[in-house]
């Protein structure tokens, strides 16, 4: 057995997956209790801007936007100006023909999901995607549910079925993966400074006080 300096095949790359953001809407967030609204919006913003920075094809979908659930978080739509939102009546995104048409147009076998609520709007499409042979990932801290119990049982159910969990910051840093990638260095650290919480504060401090750069 010989080791080589190459990334594992299970790691995500910017060009090998699509991101599907589901029902980040006011009405859905009102009842979300497993994560506070500030962290939820911050994490949703982080993954949205990361996907845009790395040119990851992204599907934005809502449920009953005009009649009940309200607009998608502006932190998300600001990252994708002018992109059409696919509005549905189905709780399971995978049962919406327009969304599936977009999945097929993009043509990626790996799909990364985040949204509200974990136990309904994320369980439904992830298990459906797995059943049709796709790989499914869930960004767990960019999801939320009506209780911690609901979120955790939903995550357990998906993981048992084969869904791969990850977190928001992990998602962005997995796409960057090497600070010597100068074409996305400034964007990645910029997103981290704005949405990366204490990690972002650390970057601001290091760059301000020492002129630090991760790539050197």
Automatic annotation (TrEMBL):
SUPFAM superfamilies: Isochorismatase-like hydrolases
Top-level taxonomic group: Bacteria
Keyword Ubl conjugation attributed: no
Pfam annotation, one family: Isochorismatase
Keyword set includes Hydrolase: yes
Keywords, alphabetical: Hydrolase
One MF term in the entry's GO annotations: hydrolase activity
Residue span, Isochorismatase-like domain: 18-168
Residue stretches in coiled coil: none
Record protein name field: Hydrolase
Lineage: Bacteria, Pseudomonadati, Pseudomonadota, Alphaproteobacteria, Hyphomicrobiales
